[in-house]
Structure formats: structure tokens, C-alpha cells
Specification:
Helix 3 packs across helix 5, helix 5 packs antiparallel against helix 6 and helix 9 crosses helix 10. Strand 5, helix 14 and strand 6 form a beta-alpha-beta unit. The strands form two sheets. Strands 5, 6, 7, 8, 9, 10, 11 and 12 form an eight-stranded mixed beta sheet that branches. The protein has a four-stranded antiparallel beta sheet with strand order 2-3-1-4. It is built from 19 helices and twelve strands. With about 425 residues, the chain is an alpha/beta fold.
Length: about 425
Amino acid sequence: MLAGALACAALIVGRVIAGANVREAWREVRGADNDPGWTRVQDFAWSTLRDYGWGDAVLSGLSQCGVPRQLRPLLLVAVTEWRKGRVAQHALVHETVALAKALNPRWGGFANALLRRLDQERARWRPEAFPSEGEEGGQAHWRHPKWWIERVRRDFPNQWQEILALGNDHPPMGLRVRRVEERDRVLGELAKAGIAAEAVAQLPDAIWLPKAVAWQALPQTVRTHAVIQDIGAQWAAHWLNPQPGERILDACAAPGGKALHLLDREPTIKLTALDQSPERLAEMTQRFPELRQQAAIFAADATMTETWWDGRPFDAVLVDAPCSASGVVRRHPDIKWLRREADLAGFVKTQERLLESLWPLVKPGGRLLYATCSLFAEEDEGVVRRFLAAHPEGKWLREREGFAGPRVVPTRQNDGFFYALLVKGH
């Protein structure tokens, strides 16, 4: 059991190190197998990727002659589990050594010596023992790439350490009740089941679970009246504030949580949902079948309006733009290591093209909500300010009653998001 989890996690980690998206790697390794043991595999792999900057530095420091490339993913998983202490040490060493031998008979002794030394010099190899400055030390200490650390430190001078620490943790779990009046009932059902849950004061339909719970482990009543949705993501529908009968466009709709929230808030809206990926749209409608009945859904490039738009302006447009996803890194730990600083310029071009293409579709007096799950200012404030400089008819509503401002900073309760509500003058 432990050996299988270590081996499968190592396969996933190895694919990500080679450049694959972690979700793709997960699907390739898991296939159609629904055995509950895969939960442990995912936990091992995701934890290893969150810790990769540290694990990589540890392996480099422990072995002056280097670690064989094929063995490295297995040892990364092993040292991460050693640090977390979730597996008995003797069992971890035994199974890791056996798996190393299976890869190459000569590697068993190498893996054994490396893990024994790690344990003997325990204090030396903790993340906090590495220097917080410098490229290799900083990446091991903070478990983020150097360029990422520098940008978070620049943009959040008073919160950067907390934000980086949260980025290494498990993601928060939020629920959204489909109807506001059902929240107390759902909270009561969770309490009966012994599941800790808290209402979120600013959002009348949001519930935070301090300890994540598998969807199937939630009471049936909860699954009937609520959906899983990050609390930070729930701000989108509240900012856009759909009104009865409005024509609304969700221009980058998949995976569908925000589109469903708009319909739940105001079922009479006429919603158009777009996404470039037919596969993502198929997953969206499989997850939320009601979208197929309640929305007009198109697989299309939102910027190529001539291929899908009927010429009638929208009252409101949601542009949940592609971005670095730096605000949701707890859910996608591969992002830290696969993204490059140079990638941001490409995201900014896409974001600006979306705004330029979709702004003409907003009717006078209508509104456009620009949203990202990024922490980086050039994808957020920078894009909005440049757009408004070229479009003086737009007004940025930065604050209003019940809203603290455009930035949702990561916390224990929520991921990080940015929202800019732009209103078009008459």
C-alpha cells in the first residue's frame, strides 16, 4: 500500500519536473481507477510539489555526486514525507529503498544512506534552517522560486511572508449554498455530522470548513443545497450583482462555478457562457448540468466576437481572464515551478486583448467585471489602469458598500483574487 502510493506519486512528480501539468500527469498515472487509495497518492504528490524548492535543495546538499535523474522523483517524495512525519520512518525508508532497488539494484544502498543521513542531521535540513535570502537558500526556505518571492515581497510589503507561507499549505475549502435562505439549514446539518463549519460574514451564501472534507463525506442535504466553491471566487457574482432579466456574458466560463453562481443569484438572467476549450465546457456541463438548460454555451475564442456574438449588447460581462494563477497556487502546486517570469507578458497581452474585444459589447451604462486569480500587479491593477487610460468612458468602482476593495488577499479561508468593476458611461 505505502510502496504503491510512493511509486505512483513519484511518477506524477517526475512528469511535472519534465514539464507536464500536474492535472495531466495525475490523469495519465491514475487512468480510470477510482480506488480510494489514490487520495493518498494525490496528497503525496501535491505535497512534494509544494515543497519542491526545499526538496531539491536537500537532495543536492545530501549528495555531492548528484542524484540519478530517474531516482530523483522518488527521493523527493520520500524526503517530503520524512519532513511531514505522516509515515513511520522505518516503513518510509524500507519501502523507498525497495523501490530504488527495483529501479536499479545499485540505488538501494544510495537511497538508504541518503535517508539515514537526513535523519541524523535532522535540524540542518529543515526549511527554516536554509537562509531566507539568495536563490537556492531562498527557494528552499520559502518553497517558491526566487522571482516569485521578489514579486510578492514588492507587491505585499506587509504581508509577503504570510502569503508565501499560505502558498505552501493545503488549499482552503469553501461551500456556497445555492439559495441564501438555506445557509442556516446547511450549517445545522454540518454540525449534526460533526463537521466544523463557519458562516462568512460578508458573503450571505458562503461557508468555510476549517478542515477539508471529501464531497461524498458531506451529508446528503448539504450536497443538495450547496456546491464547493472557494470563498474568494464567490466575490465575483456579488461584484457583478446580476439583475432580473439582464443579458450577461461569462467570457471565460469553465470550470463553471461563477456562471452557476450568477444563475443562482438571479435565475431570470439570460446568460451566455463561452470557453475556448470544448473539453473544459464538457466537464463544466457534466459537473453542473443545469448550465446546459439555463445558459447559451459556445466553444469559442471570446476575442473573435464575429464567430459567436449576435450583435445585441450585454448588460454585464464577466472576464475571468487567463493569468499566472499565482493566487490559487495551493490548489495547483506545479504552477510555482512551471511558470516563468517571462510568461507574465503573454498573459498580460491576452488580458488586454480580452478587454479591448469585449468592452464594445457592453451597453452604455452597463458594467464589465475584470477578474483574475493572480497576485501580481502587472496582471491586475496594471492592466486595468492602461485600459482605462485608453477608454475614458469607463469608470472603475473600486469600493462600494460591503466590499473592501478590488484585492482578495489569500487567507486560511480563501485563495487570492482580483476584481475590477468597470462601468461604461452613457
